[in-house]
From TrEMBL:
Domain of life: Bacteria
Protein name: Group III truncated hemoglobin
Lineage, opening ranks: Bacteria, Pseudomonadati, Bacteroidota, Flavobacteriia, Flavobacteriales
Transport found in the keyword field: yes
Keywords, ordered alphabetically: Heme, Iron, Metal-binding, Transport
Organism field: Chryseobacterium edaphi
């Protein structure tokens, strides 16, 4: 099994992850129907996002939390959605990579997803 250590590795990881996401019954509709995601725009952002988190490249300049409030407003993003997101992310990593960065990609995603789930829930109560 390979280590997660280059931009090419991240591209493979992100592409394989979203290939699962779009086919998924629990969360696919957020991307396919609710937001009708422009993949040519979204995928490069996600490569940069993970490159920034894992390799400290600072190539991503955005506000991921803020981007999800409008989605949550259209369709509630609930705990079970985040659980599925995390399950697919973890599965994709474990199918392809090993090592410290692979573990870090899992831990970081858990932290962000938990915080995001909490913020989305709070936003729905306002
Ligand atoms: C149920 C869980 C989630 C759903 C349904 C979801 C959905 C989406 C969608 C539809 C977009 C694209 C928005 C657009 O086209 O403008 C997006 C963007 C993004 N998501 Fe998520 N997301 C989820 C969880 C997460 C998590 C856990 C992370 C981080 C670990 C994350 C990171 C991002 C980032 C970085 C962007 C790009 C933001 C930007 O445009 O700068 N998402 N998400």
């Amino acid at each position: 099994m390979k280590k997660l250590e280059s931009r090419e590795d991240i591209e493979l990881l992100v592409n394989s992850f979203y290939a699962k996401v779009v086919k998924d019954e629990t969360i696919g509709f957020f991307f396919n129907d609710i937001m009708k995601v422009d993949w040519d725009q979204h995928l490069p952002k996600m490569y940069s996002f993970w490159e920034t988190i894992l390799f400290g490249q600072m190539s991503y300049k955005g506000n991921p939390m803020a981007k999800h409030f409008p989605i949550n407003h259209l369709e509630a993003m609930e705990k079970h959605h985040f659980a599925k997101w995390l399950e697919l992310w973890k599965q994709t990593i474990e199918e392809n990579f090993t090592g410290v960065n692979a573990s870090m990609a899992i831990t970081k995603s858990e932290n962000i997803a938990n915080l995001m789930a909490y913020k989305m829930e709070m936003a729905r109560k306002l």
